[in-house]
Amino acid sequence: MRILGERAIELTTPAGVHFTQTVILAAGCGAFVPRETGHPEPDRLRGARDLLLPPPFEPLRGKKVLIVGGGNSAVDWALSLDGIASEVTLCHRMYKWHAHEAMVHRLLSSHVRVKYP
Questions:
Q1: CB-side exposure of 3: number of CA atoms within 13 Å?
Q2: Whole-Å CA distances, 54 to 51, 60, 77
Q3: Is 85:108 a contact under the CB 8 Å cutoff?
Q4: Which of 49, 64, 71, 82 has the most crowded Cβ, counting Cβ within 10 A?
């Protein structure tokens, strides 16, 4: 990965070179220590695993969104953004889902593009 400017990033993969404005690292399992977010109550939120706040969908309106995962959260986000984002793609590393069966059925019946290995 090489940063080319304020809004350009070059990614080199075995498939070739790709240019983007956004990179999301989803390592999971608490691999990274959270940064200070500037939230007005950081002490109350420090160490929290799940924040029950409405997701910020409006900034994603009309955008192309890629979601990586196969659990309930990934499927829920993909379904929630269907119809808000211009395009939603859910990429999952396995053919077996870790989400609730009814949600997977809804996902596969929606406009969300699903990519497997």
A1: 5
A2: 9, 14, 11
A3: no
A4: 82
What the block records as the tokens of 54 is 């409405």
Burial of 99 (0-12, 13-18, 19+ CB in 10 A): buried
- How big is the chain, counted in residues? 117
- Residue 90 sits at φ, ψ, to 5 deg, of -110, 120
Interatomic CA distance for residues 47 and 34, integer angstroms: 9
Q: Is the pLDDT of residue 33 over 60?
A: no
Which pTM does this prediction carry? 0.58
Place of tokens 């609730």: 100
Return the bridge partners of 36, or none.
Answer: none
Q: Residue 67 to residues 6, 21, 62, 72, 81: CA-CA distances in angstroms?
A: 23, 16, 15, 12, 10
Closest CA relative to residue 110, chosen from 67, 64, 79 = 79
Say which range, 11-20, 47-56, 72-81, 86-95, has the weakest mean pLDDT.
47-56
Q: What is the pLDDT of residue 23?
A: 72
